[in-house]
Structures are given as C-alpha cells and as structure tokens.
Design goal:
Elements lengths: L12 H28 L1 H4 L7 H11 L8 E2 H9 L5 H11 L12 E2 L9 H13 L5 H21 L3 H16 L2 H4 L1 H4 L15 H11 L9 H20 L4 H17 L4 H27 L4 H4 L8 H6 L12 H4 L16 H14 L14 H17 L1 H23 L28 H21 L4 H24 L8 H37 L1
Antiparallel strand pairs: 1-2
Helix pairs in contact: 1-7, 1-8, 1-21, 3-4, 3-6, 6-7, 6-12, 7-11, 7-12, 8-21, 8-23, 11-12, 11-13, 11-22, 12-14, 13-22, 18-19, 19-20, 21-23, 22-23
Length: 543
C-alpha cells in the first residue's frame, strides 16, 4: 500500500524481484514475531481454555483413545470439566501420561455421541486436526491457528502482489499489539478468549474477508485467471472453517454475499465482468458447501439430528435481553415457571440459568419426559424453546425489547472496546478488577523485556514498511479502507443480536484498530511522497 506513487516504476526484472522480496520479508518477520509471542508467553501458555473443554474432550477421546470422531468418553468429559481451573498444558500432559494405560483396554465411561456445550462441531474438528498434526500439546492449538493465518496471508500475498504486504504486516502488527492488551494480561478476559481458542478464531477470518472483498472491488475487467480462483478457494476454506468455529463471523459471509449481489446487478450487462462474478461465486459457494459437507459427513449423525452441528443462537439472543438492568420485566419471571427445579427462577442479567429455566418450563408444558432431556440441553430443541420465549417476551414488551437492541447493546459495544484499550506491562494485580468475575489467585504476569522489545520491533517494522517500502495508487488505498470499513459494518450485527464484552468483540476491535493504523500508515506514506517530491524539486533547481 502506498502513498500515490509518481516516481517511475522499476521495470527491470531484478528490481521487481527485490521490491516483492522486501515486502515479503517484512511480512514474514511480522508473522514470526507474533507467532513467537503467541507460542511462548506465560500469559498465553498457562491458559485453562475454560470455554473449550467439551470440544477438547472430544478431540482427546479421538486422538488419544481412538474413539469415533466427534464422540466423547463420559469419564474424559467429566474430568476435563471438573478441572476447569487447571491450565490446559498440565491437563494435556496428564492425559498423554494416561494414554498407555488404555491402549489395550476400553475407556471406563459410556460413550457420549456429541459435545454438550452448544458451541457446535467446528472447533472440535479443528482441535482434532491440530492434535493429529502437532501432537497432544497445548501449543498445538495456537499453532493450528497460526497455520491457517499463515496460509491466508500467503494466498493474499500471491494474489495481490507487492501492495498486499502492507495489509499483512499491519494485520500481524495489530495481533501483536493485542497480546499486550487486557485480552491477554487480564486473567478475567484471557480465560474467556485464549489464543487459539473458539472466540479468538474470529480473528482468523479477517484476511480471508479482505481477500474476498478486494477480489470483488478489484479493477474492472480483471482477467479470470485460474490461479486467482484457486487462491480464492483457499480463503473460502479458511473463512468457512473460522465461521464454523466462531459463529459471530457468519455475518461476514452474508456481507460478502450482499456486496457480490450489488456488483452482479451493477455489471449485469457487462458480459466479461458478469462471468467473472459468476466464477467467483461458484468457487466460494461450492468450496464452502464441500467443506461443510465433509465436516457433517465425518461426524455421528446425532450432530445433525439433535441440532448440535452449529452453535446455539437463540440461547444468546434471548439471554441478551438482560442487558437492560430492569430485566426481568414484570410478568416475565412468572411466564416461565421453573422454581421447582431452579428456585431462583429468571434472574437479572444474563446467567445461563435463565436459559435453563425457560427450557425446563418448555419441557413441562410440552409434556416431554424429564428423564429424556439430559443430553438435549443446548441442542436444537433447546434453542427452539429459547426462540419461542424470545418472541413471547417481545410480544409482551415490544418497546423494551427494541430499546435493548437499539440503546443498551450499542452502549455495551462502546464499553467493551474502551475496556480493551488499556496497557499493563508491570503486572499490577489491582488493575485487573472490573465488572467480570475476578480470579485473584493468579494475578497479572508482567511482560518480559524480550516480549516488550518484540512489540517495539513489530511496530518499527510496520512504520518502516509504510515509510520506505509501500507503493500503491489512491484507488488501491481507497479499496483497502473501504474493505476495513465494511469489516466493521459486517461485524457489528453479531453484537447487536447478542451482546459485546471485551473478550467477545475482538474482531470488531481489530477492524477499528486496522482503520486507525491504516489511516496513520497512509499519512506516513503521503509524507514520504511529499518528501520525495520536495527532494526532486530541489534537485531540478540545482541542475
């Protein structure tokens, strides 16, 4: 990316190679800095991965104990759930030590056909591949994530040549900066968004989104080269996998489809461009269908029949009404009678027990045997009960429901972003206290001088690239800025539908930081361009 380049382009083959190699080298260096920090920092390595335990138990049951893909041994699941506060590193070491005892004998517990946490099947499949490729180690999780990020960056670089290096460098620089944000140093947040975990996968979808939108916004009548379509297919795989792992990324797919539809209407009478759009849509659509189909076919049929293939949606939407501090509104608690099983009933805020209460009320009213629902919580029928409850509440209080979506939830977004814009290099435990549950036993680990030095190096690489290496036209700069803005627009709906917390809105935070960073980088490029013109003018006068 660059400021407007007026100097003659390098025409020699050697000059072009040098220019591309310089951008690639800086991009690779940015990637390696981020990867090193993501794999070695104690703030990252000692994370317990509390939200991923059911998927972890499924992957371990398959990789370590030879069970069918997607199924779990109930004893393995119970052990992973009861050790929730234990760092995953220690838990996987214990698991690896236990494997030899069960090589010639079945595991002690009965088989559970699906995961039970409502997170869907995407992450357990990613975990299974990670453990197969890299072994039963905690670093296999971020390493799998880094592999996908690296493939995505490579595809972007190959497709869009030299100026794409600036996108990649800025991408990994921002990820490095986020390692020094409360998402990592604050244990209250870090437990809920571990690097390589479910929520962090929303950041894996960013480069594929850039690639697809830049492909659509590219110069008119661009050639429909086969290589470009292959690279687009690679990004489609990564984006679909990321969306299957982290459901909040699904609106990105809808946003990309909307942009494609607008362009299809615009170019409906331009045969070459229309045919290119069709080929791009077929590449992305068929690739996505194949990936989802393979994922579904590889799992027990219960993932589909019980509605556990994807994440629960209405559970989160209905609970999100608790963003209004006056919730439950008069009559709502009485609407769902569950006090025989949950004495407190519907509570203020957004506890999961509110969903359980609505579910139990649904079970009783629909004469479903209580003994049959043990494995149905967070399944398809459970989500149906939460959907029905949402519309019943909305019918009673349409104004309050609308206020929750248009007033309270946008405020939560602003508060979530503001809460992440803090630094703490020294590890002062007093600065971890906030509105979330506090875990004082761990405190905050200070960053080492090496880690801080790598942060400075990453920022210096990014600044050097924009000042010395980047070259692009104003239309290219405009397209990149437009894609980043669309990333914000396509990400916000997830947090309006549900809610934003510092550890759930990392992708939105990233797009905001990218816009700020890209604007600053464009300013640096413009300053370099102005300086070049001034030097050239002085040289002409001197001659």
């Amino acid at each position: 990316m660059t400021a407007v380049a007026t100097a003659p382009a390098r025409k020699t083959r050697l000059g072009i190679v040098k220019k591309i190699s310089a951008g690639s080298a800086l991009a690779l260096l940015s990637y390696l800095i981020y990867a090193y920090l993501a794999l070695t920092l104690p703030q990252v390595v000692d994370n317990p991965f509390i939200c991923e335990r059911s998927s972890l138990a499924a992957a371990v049951s398959n990789v370590a104990f030879g069970m069918q893909l997607g199924t779990l041994d109930s004893e393995v699941l119970a052990y992973y759930l009861k050790t929730m506060d234990e760092p995953l590193r220690e838990l996987l070491d214990e698991t690896a030590a236990a494997v030899p005892r069960y090589q010639d004998a079945p595991l002690p517990g009965p088989v559970v056909k699906t995961t039970q946490d409502g997170n869907g099947a995407g992450y357990l499949l990613v975990l299974t591949v990670a453990f197969r490729l890299f072994g039963l180690h905690v670093w296999a999780l971020p390493l799998m994530m880094l592999t996908l990020m690296g493939l995505s960056a490579l595809a972007l670089r190959r497709r869009f040549s030299d100026w794409s290096a600036s996108i990649i460098i800025l991408y990994f620089t921002i990820l490095t900066v986020l390692i020094f944000s409360p998402l990592v140093w604050n244990p209250n947040y870090a437990r809920n968004i571990p690097i390589g975990g479910i929520r962090y996968f929303s950041l894996v979808t960013i480069l594929p989104t850039f690639h697809m939108l830049l492909e659509l916004f590219g110069p008119e009548m661009q050639p429909a080269r086969r290589r470009n379509l292959w690279l687009l297919g690679v990004q489609a795989v990564i984006l679909v996998v990321g969306a299957m792992v982290r459901g909040s990324a699904i609106p990105l797919l809808g946003g990309i489809g909307l942009v494609w539809l607008v362009l299809a209407v615009r170019y409906r009478r331009v045969a070459a461009q229309r045919w290119l759009l069709v080929r791009q849509a077929l590449t992305v659509g068929l690739t996505g269908l194949v990936i989802v189909g393979v994922m579904a076919a590889s799992l027990p049929r219960e993932y589909l029949t019980e509605g556990r293939f994807g994440t629960v949606i209405w559970h989160r939407i209905t609970l999100s009404l608790g963003v209004d501090k006056s919730f439950p509104w008069p009559g709502v608690a009485e609407l769902f009678d569950c006090k025989k099983y949950i004495p407190e009933g519907i509570q203020p805020g957004m506890p999961d027990t509110n969903g359980h209460c609505i579910w139990l009320d649904y079970v009783v009213k629909h004469h479903i045997p209580l003994g049959s629902i043990g494995d149905k919580t967070y399944g398809g029928l459970y989500d149906v009960s939460l959907r029905d409850a949402f519309f019943e509440i909305a019918r009673m209080y349409p104004g309050k429901v609308l206020t929750a979506f248009v007033y309270y939830k946008p405020r939560w977004i602003v508060q979530a972003i503001a809460a992440t814009l803090r630094t703490n290099f020294a590890g002062d435990p007093a600065r971890t206290v906030d509105h979330t549950v506090h875990f004082p036993e761990r405190g905050v680990i200070p960053y080492s001088p090496v880690a801080v030095g790598l942060l400075i190096a990453a920022l210096a690489i990014c600044l050097f690239n924009f000042f010395m290496g980047a070259r692009a036209s104003l239309p290219t700069i405009g397209r990149v800025a437009g894609v980043a803005s669309l990333g914000i627009a396509f990400t916000i709906p997830s947090y309006i539908a549900v809610w934003a917390l510092p550890y759930t809105a990392a992708d939105l935070l990233f797009y905001l930081l990218f816009c700020i960073g890209f604007a600053a980088g464009s300013g640096v490029m413009s300053a370099r361009w102005a300086l070049d013109r001034l030097i050239s003018a002085q040289a002409v006068r001197g001659a």
